[in-house]
Design goal:
single chain, alpha+beta, Peptide Deformylase, two-stranded antiparallel ribbon, disordered N terminus
Length: about 200
């Protein structure tokens, strides 16, 4: 996939508490693939992810009910990964080919706090590109974590849901303290963004 850099319009990021983050997103259908609206949405998501300083962003994080996410990030080895996937399904990776890694994780829709979340260190996602062509994306390390985190979003789950009740409450308190600063930094990045 050849996506590079922020090209579209920056959209508001939905925050924890918004109903769309809790709903299972609708799958992309024939009316979506190849459409100008889908192409524009993907570009807008890349731009929004860039301004928010994210690794990836799901469609419901910009208020759109669609099984889609984009990513633009470096993995643990400094390799940049840029792409998008619609209707992703994660393969079950055999136990002898993966390990569980506990690592800090954050979310653009939960501005501020990071918490340790266990995820497998290898993931294979199968889905489609914007033209409806099949794609297979394999991630290791941080990129694997990203693919799992974003797929969770499409099922209406946040990383907060993988925490104990106590940890979740602490993360939400921290978010309340940090949110305004994070959102102000995003607003400043948007203001400085080349037109």
């Amino acid at each position: 996939m050849a996506e590079t850099g922020p090209r579209g319009a920056v959209r508001p990021v939905t925050l924890v508490g918004d109903d769309i983050l809790r709903r299972r997103c609708r799958p992309a259908g024939a009316e979506d693939f190849g459409s100008p609206g889908l192409a524009a949405l993907i570009e807008d998501m890349f731009a929004t992810n860039d301004v928010a300083e994210g690794a990836a962003i799901a469609a419901n994080q910009v208020g759109v009910d669609l099984r889609l996410f984009v990513w633009d990030m470096e993995d643990d080895w400094g390799v940049r990964h840029v792409g998008h996937i619609l209707n992703p399904v994660l393969d079950e990776v055999p136990a002898d080919e993966r390990r569980l890694v506990e690592q800090a994780e954050g979310c653009l829709s939960v501005p501020g706090p990071y918490r340790v979340v266990p995820r497998t260190d290898r993931t294979v996602a199968r889905g489609f590109d914007q033209d409806g062509e099949p794609v297979v994306v394999e991630g290791r390390g941080y990129f694997a974590r990203c693919l799992q985190h974003e797929t969770d979003h499409l099922h209406g789950r946040l990383y907060l849901d993988r925490l104990s009740r106590r940890e979740r409450a602490a993360a939400l308190r921290e978010m309340a303290e940090l949110r305004d600063g994070v959102l102000a930094r995003r607003a400043e990045r948007l203001r400085l963004r080349p037109r």
